[in-house]
Amino acid sequence: MRVKIEEIQKDGGLHLDEPIPKQTVQAALDDFEDGWRADEGFQLKAHLLKVGEGVLLKGDFTAKVVAPCKRCVTDVLLTLPHSFTLNLVDASLAQQMGVEDEGEDDGKGERNGSFSLDEAEQDTFDGKVIDLDPIIREQILLALPMSAVCRDDCAGLCTVCGQNLNEKRCGCDTKVIDPRLGALKDIKLN
């Protein structure tokens, strides 16, 4: 989805209410190997406002995704409401101001990939057209939780037989004995 700068009115900005198809959500999730899947597309509500030489983008959406529970590996449907605000800067102006393009390391930080806090919510565009697709992809990924659980008290799987302990108890002995000390359990003391 692309927005031309001249479409953004000076006084009221530009309101978007666009459907994001399931395929776009799935394409963003395909980078993960953890089994995340798109359940459905969503409606992106965004407002673009010209601010000085840049554009302020405020947006929100609610994505529905399916992921395996990290404890019992059953599928979990997650509803992820997400709001974001980005300051979009013309790439040529950003270069003049010394702002690095996305993904570049300035080499001045203590660690690779360092950035200043002022640049955290800033992105660039070519000065005439804003491509929202990479922004939407990034925001989908930022909306995902670190891990998914089916419920807070999920018991997980039995470490011996693999039974889902949420469904029933298996009766396996789950006491783990260090194999180096295993011979000591056979010692009979009087």
Walk me through the structure.
By secondary structure, this protein is of the alpha+beta class. The chain is 14% helix and 33% strand. It has three helices and eight strands, in the order ββαββββαββα. The strands form two sheets. Strands 2, 3, 4, 5, 6 and 7 form a six-stranded mixed beta sheet that branches. A two-stranded antiparallel sheet has the order 1-8. The termini are far apart.
Strand count, sense and barrel status of the largest sheet are:
6 strands, mixed
Oligomer: single chain
Instruction: Report the structural category.
Output: alpha+beta
Strand content: 25-35%
Mean pLDDT: 84
Q: Number of DSSP strands? A: 8
Low-confidence parts: none
Distance between the termini: 79 Å
User: Level of helix content?
Assistant: 10-25%
Count of separate DSSP helical elements:
3
- How do the helices and strands follow one another from N- to C-terminus? EEHEEEEHEEH
Shape: elongated
